[in-house]
Amino acid sequence: MQAILNEGECTERTRCSPNSLVRNGSIHHFLRLQLRSEQDAEDALAEVFRRVHKGREKFRGDCPERVWIMRIAANVALRQRQISAKHRHASLEELGEGEWKGLAMDGHVERDAVNKAFVETVLSGLPPEQRAAVWLRVALEYTDEETAEILGVPTGTVKSWVWRSLARLKRAYADQASEVLSP
Amino acid sequence: MNVKNCDSDNLRKYADGLLSTKECEAIEAHAVQCGTCASELDRLLSGAAKMVAEAAALQAVPAASLQRVTEQVKPRRRWVWLTLPPAAAVACVAMWAWLGAGQNLRLLQVEGLAFANGELVQSGDLIPTGATLALDEGATVELEQLRLRAIEGPTIVALQSGSRLEVRPLSGVATLETRKKGSYVAISGRDAFRPLGTTFMLEPRPSGATAGILHGQVEVHSGEGSLVLNEGQAWSTGRTQLVQEDPTATVGLPPIPQFEGLSVSIRRESADPELAEILKRASRRPKDPEPLVAMARYFLERQEGAACGRAIVRAFELDSSLAGMPSDRVEQAMLRLAIYPEDGDPEAAMALAGVLASRGGLTKDALQALSQWVDRRDEASRADQLIGLYPAMPSFYIGEVLLESRGADPERVLRAISHLKLALAGLPADATSRQRAFVIERLAEAQYYSLTQRSESIRNLRSAVDLWPRPHWLVHLGARISETGGSVDEAWKYLTLGFLADPSIASAERLLALMSNEERTPADLQQRYAVAEWLSKSFPTVFRAQALAGNQFDPRHPQLAVVYFDRALALKVGEPGPYDYWIPSAWARAEFARSAPSEDAERARVACEIAQRAGLLAEGKELQLANYYQGIRQHRLAIDAIRKMDIEPLAKASCLAVSLAEVGSMPEALEACEAYLVAAGSHPEPLTYTEISVLRAELLLRIQPDEARNVAKALIVSPPPGIKDAWRGKQGRWLGFEARLRWILGDRRRAIALQRKYLAHWPLNPDAAQETLRLNSWLHLDRPHSDGLQ
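^ Those are the sequences you sent over. The predicted structure of the assembly is below.
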């Protein structure tokens, strides 16, 4: 594991080492958004690394490595959600919005914290698949095809999910603005 | 909400979140297909996208979190157990086995005979990842991700469970029906197939995989790129585009209406222990050619060419010398696969020819000639060339080759009979009853085509069925008894027995033929349509079944034929096969049924358009085009098509004569008739021969009346052989011809009486309208003081 962590930074789009992915936080951020629990995200991140480490020799290179790794992350998040649902842990979904905002701003959120919290709050109201799709596609800049590969759905579905999520965000932003402007 | 055209207002409302869920879905469904609207939506939502991107400004994972992660994932220490005491090692192995169970695959449902790694599997069993499954034809295995079914002969599949399930078909033809979206990938050679809520067929071949999509979509990734296949489309390795031989592929395929899942026939009623043993070995040793050679031999002995071919191909992949197969079996398999047009396999035949050549059983020249021969289409020249290329061919196969290529040549049939009789006489004393039955059945088939030996044919077929009561032989015997005027009850008995044992498309085809032959009342007709409906519903994913159902065309309900033909066309996936000639005609008939109510002038225009769309104008399709035009009584168009034909002169002349006569080109029609009668020889097809002979007499009446009457008299005294046989006799065909000949002779009252009798005898005659018209014109001309010309 340490060997993986000591690898060099991501140098091109299709070859991104697990190390660079973990250090720039994309997987962690994705997992945190999907699981909405810092502890669950950490556990899931560890599991992602375990699976990447174990499966790396078998990786055939038939898709970009970063897509392969993110697919693992998506699967781990899905599994983790299932476990959480089964054991009824007090997840963020069961907590109030205020607590979510607090957590979202906790620790490493420094710049544009309010906007970021707003986006994450809106996204948190989406179904997990849609949330994952919009995050992968828009935030992490995976292509439609890569996102479809990661989530195991058709490309058209990814497009629909992304458009719908963004439309919801836009509407929520407009509503918020009108609330602020209203006397 | 209907989003047929791009509607910018709706897109704006969508982006502003002002539409209902249903409206949103409609917009999304449209935008996914429409690049312009997709770009517009992206533009309208770019502000929101920017917010998400800014919110995701990536930051390093907090050091504390990173530390916790790295602590959780320590590198595994390998081979620790080597240093442990034995008890601890045993405990480790037990723990490993327990943990390893997580990698197992659970078989949720197993139907039919299936083996995994040499063990018979049942519903609920766990199989280890990396297992090889061997399924008997019709067997189904259901996993969490997919339902796998062997649809033509046995199928061998390797399953590898990793981050996602990998399905690797090794041999046979399987359908893969997704149970959980996107959770598995099918891999064949360098090609990967990702299902998108799909049912698709996949056949692995050494030259590459072939996939046909029955439902949903499949994403194909090959060395040359990737593409998405839609329902009704097909793909073969090495082609970055869809299979284009199918003319319908260029005009868009209709959806399959009311798709209700797969339904395929299980030809064997119960598993044969010998085959079960072979499948068991094949699942245990997937890289050993021996079980596949045994499988090929098994199917060879049962004359199931396609299944034999697939096993051979896989065995050949594993061992190109086929060491486990004796040369005589290689030779038999090669000929079996090369000869038969329907379930043969030229690719496998050539592989075997290569094996035979490497063992000195074939010269290199013969091998080269064979490889060129495989691509030839003309059956007669193919057969002659094969016999010439391969002088040591056993009598049985010479007989078979001649029988398969008989065309309208009675000489070939007689030669086939003599070779098959030689083969029967030459059977060794220890030949099995099945071997003997097979030769006798082939001899019976040849004798049937020699019109003078039909009673011997039925007798021999009965003997073959007694020795080996194969279901489809029972069906065949029933049909033959009916066709040769035997007891209808006995015919039904055999046909029913066979059909119940083998409720397959082939059985239904014979059943429909028998019903068509025996039907006399509208109730009979309804019964036939009911069988057509059963056929369509029982085999909703089989092209041939739908085309057959469509061919039971009920003129009162043309839309039904449209439904069947549309289904057939939607299913025409895979490589062109022996039934590919049905495609344009099926397409044309469906379109004809749609346009049936239109006026004649309009019909001509529609006919041209349909022909264009259906690909009938393509080279090699002229005969179907001509038949189509004749069917809609557009004879001038038919003549143009016939003149372009490059087919055997006999078919061309008969076709041309009929259309020329219809448009009034008498001298040319007469010439075509005479060309046909000269080429027809001494033993022609009775119906066509009689039709052309009577037509010639009718044409002669206008220019050489005496000669016409002489011809008519001669035909009445000596009708062409076969025209009064049981099959045609049941339809009263000769009554109609004799009526026309009597009219030529001036015996009007007799002609009218015979014509009436003909119409009464066969009320379901598809040409009833035309024949009634003929009768009415005769009645008109026969009125007192009529000045009509004869």
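The longest strand of chain B covers residues 146-161. Residues 686-703 of chain B form the longest helix (18 residues).

Shout if you want it in another format.
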